[in-house]
Write a structure and sequence with these properties.
By secondary structure, the protein is an alpha+beta fold. The protein is built from ten helices and 39 strands.
């Protein structure tokens, strides 16, 4: 039977057994044969005992005593964590030796040891100082140059023919090309913006005077509002107020055309209040700045709405009040009373009718207008075909006769400092000089003109023609534009300078039409695939290798600028002059703009330039698209 011993090996045991056997044969007189009880196990046990005794293995060594003294137990030296060690032994325990300081350890390691207390924790948590990490390559500060460099490193130029006709022939052959053709069909210079999809800027927005580009941008259905009439915009809170005649309510809209509140006037029974016109206190120094005043034509009252959109006062006025205006010069509100043939004057701050009110007017006053410069008050007397003029002290100045047939409204035009009265029955508009109060101009309007208002965005006066539902738009020089139709026209219309939109009441459909401009001027045409091209570059930026501008006409592009938009909202703009890049190969109006090489087309930049009237420009761009991750991989290899 084979057996493994705990002292020596099997061979050693067998050798010892053999030696003892030989001794028995040679000195058989002195030795008694020992049989070890006939088993190998007994032999091994006896041999081990003899050997341990001969080698003195069980003697307590000096080191053993030291270990015993150090760790405090006789059972096993490995029981170092025996918490039964008497306290007196704690002082005798030898201090552990500090680990030798490796060269890679730094002062930070020592601080971490003191802070976290275990070497294991330091190794796992703060071991990042052991080995120097490979520092990442910093992101290029000039991204476009990095992209261009990366692109050019992949482009293998061909051998250039010494007498090549076109030095850009290699580029034309090797790079994809994008072409954009823009035509300016007007006689005026137009601004054009290319690229920059992130900003969603129009390629060429209509100019304020491009009234042919007006369009209905929103139709607002008025909740609980019936037969909307007068409209006013409040500069104090930028809200739009609409008087709903048959429901006796005021609808309030914000600049996003969302309904803020519907204000119910008294009495609430439908038709008993009949609000038809409004005005607003525009004097910022007034205690009631931003208050809105509403004439209730059946209730014969003036309702006052504060900035919290609550009715705070109801003031009796004359019979059948139908028009109203605020005078910023004397802070008074003037109400034209159709049946009583007079004009009520209300203190806009005290909310009371002043002494001396009402003021006499002509027959059937139906419209009132204010000159905000002089404070003069003009009342349109519809049956009298005249205009009554008071000054800001409510003293009668004059009566202007023969203002057409049935004058219904009068509006101040700051573009030429004139008053314009609309006569609805003979379809004319009369320009009144503000110093002499005389008619100095007559403009033919559409059919049944009624209300008028001033557009401060383009400086034009808009006249609403009720019968043919069109606008007559009058420029400061009294030239006009007729025939523009954007839904029903009635007595309600106003311009909102906070979103450059026109609000018109549509009484038949109980809606408000909001009129703005087209996204792109109708005088500018651009190839149909350009929006798709811009969107592609917005998602997949391209670096330009070369750009060429071919202009039909004698004039060059003007005011060319390269704009870059930063994440913080600022714009870095760089001008570029085409005078420096006239093509030497072409006698036409061609510019080889080498300065654009290496720049990037994406959603965060644009080109802005001015295209002369009746000119067409073809922009040709040779480029190569890339993905940002490819560039990063190259830098972080």
């Amino acid at each position: 039977m084979k057996r493994t011993g705990n002292i020596g090996i099997n061979g050693l045991a067998q050798s010892l057994k053999k030696i003892f056997a030989e001794k028995k044969k040679s000195k058989e007189d002195n030795f008694v044969e020992k049989t070890y009880e006939g088993t190998d196990d007994n032999f091994f046990e006896a041999t081990n005992t003899n050997l341990r005794k001969a080698l003195n293995l069980d003697k307590k060594s000096e080191s053993y005593e030291k270990d015993l003294k150090r760790f405090g137990t006789r059972i096993k030296l490995i029981d170092v964590a025996d918490d039964a060690i008497p306290n007196r032994r704690n002082k005798e325990i030898l201090p552990l030796r500090k680990p030798s300081k490796a060269k890679c350890f730094k002062e930070k390691y020592k601080k971490d040891v003191e802070r976290f207390g275990t070497r294991q924790g330091i190794i796992n948590v703060s071991n990042d100082e052991y080995v120097k990490k490979k520092k990442p390559v910093p992101f290029p500060t000039d991204f476009s140059k990095a992209v261009y460099k990366s692109m050019m490193s992949k482009w293998k130029k061909r051998e250039v023919t010494p007498f090549s006709v076109n030095p850009y022939s290699d580029i034309f052959r090797e790079f994809p090309k994008a072409q954009i053709t823009i035509q300016n069909k007007s006689t005026e210079e137009k601004e054009v913006v290319l690229w920059g999809g992130n900003q969603n800027i129009s390629t060429s927005p209509p100019a304020p005077g491009d009234v042919q580009d007006h369009t209905v941008i929103a139709q607002i259905s008025i909740p609980s509002g019936v037969h909307p009439q007068g409209i006013v915009v409040n500069p104090a809170n930028q809200l739009v107020y609409i008087a709903n005649q048959l429901s006796g309510t005021i609808t309030v809209l914000d600049s996003n055309n969302q309904v803020v509140k519907v204000i119910q006037l008294e009495p609430t029974f439908p038709g008993f209040t009949s609000p038809v016109a409004l005005t607003v206190n525009t004097k910022s120094t007034s205690a009631k700045y931003g208050f809105v005043y509403v004439v209730c034509s059946v209730a014969n009252t003036l309702a006052v709405i504060d900035l919290s959109l609550n009715v705070v006062a109801t003031i009796p006025v004359g019979s059948r009040p139908i028009a109203i205006a605020f005078n910023p010069v004397n802070t008074k509100v003037y109400v034209a009373n159709l049946v009583s043939d007079n004009m009520s004057v209300i203190d806009a701050d005290a909310l009371t009718e002043i002494a001396g009110s009402p003021l006499p007017t002509g027959q059937d006053p139906i419209g009132v207008g204010i000159n905000p410069v002089t404070g003069d008050i003009y009342t349109a007397n519809s049956l009298g075909n005249s205009i009554t003029v008071y000054d800001s002290n409510n003293i009668l100045v004059t009566t202007i006769p023969a203002v057409g047939l049935y004058p219904v409204s009068i509006t101040y035009n700051p573009a030429n400092n004139s008053m314009y009265a609309v006569a609805t029955n003979n379809n004319f508009v009369y320009q009144i000089e503000t110093l002499t109060h005389t008619i100095v101009g007559i403009i033919e309007a559409g059919s049944k003109p009624y209300n008028s208002f001033f557009d401060s965005y383009n400086g034009y006066l808009y006249v609403q023609n009720r019968q043919d539902n069109t606008f007559t738009i009058i420029r400061p020089d009294n030239s006009k534009i007729d025939g523009l139709s954007f839904g029903e026209q009635n007595i309600g219309g106003a311009f909102n300078s906070f979103n450059n939109s026109i609000y018109v009441s549509d009484t038949s459909n109980n809606t408000i039409n909001v009129i703005g401009y087209l996204q792109v001027s109708s005088t500018i045409s651009i190839n149909s695939d350009y929006p798709e091209m811009r969107e592609d570059f917005q998602s997949n930026p391209a670096v330009i290798q070369h750009a060429k501008f071919v202009v039909t006409g004698l004039e060059r592009l003007n005011s060319f600028r390269i704009n870059k938009f930063t994440p913080t909202g600022t714009v870095k703009s760089k001008p570029l002059s085409f005078e420096l890049y006239a093509s030497p190969q072409s006698a036409l109006n061609v510019a080889e703009v080498t300065e654009l090489a290496g720049t990037v087309i994406d959603g965060k930049m644009n080109w802005r330039f001015k295209l002369p009237g009746l000119h067409t420009v073809s922009v040709l761009v040779w480029y190569r698209q890339f993905e940002v991750r490819d560039l990063l991989q190259n830098n972080y290899k």
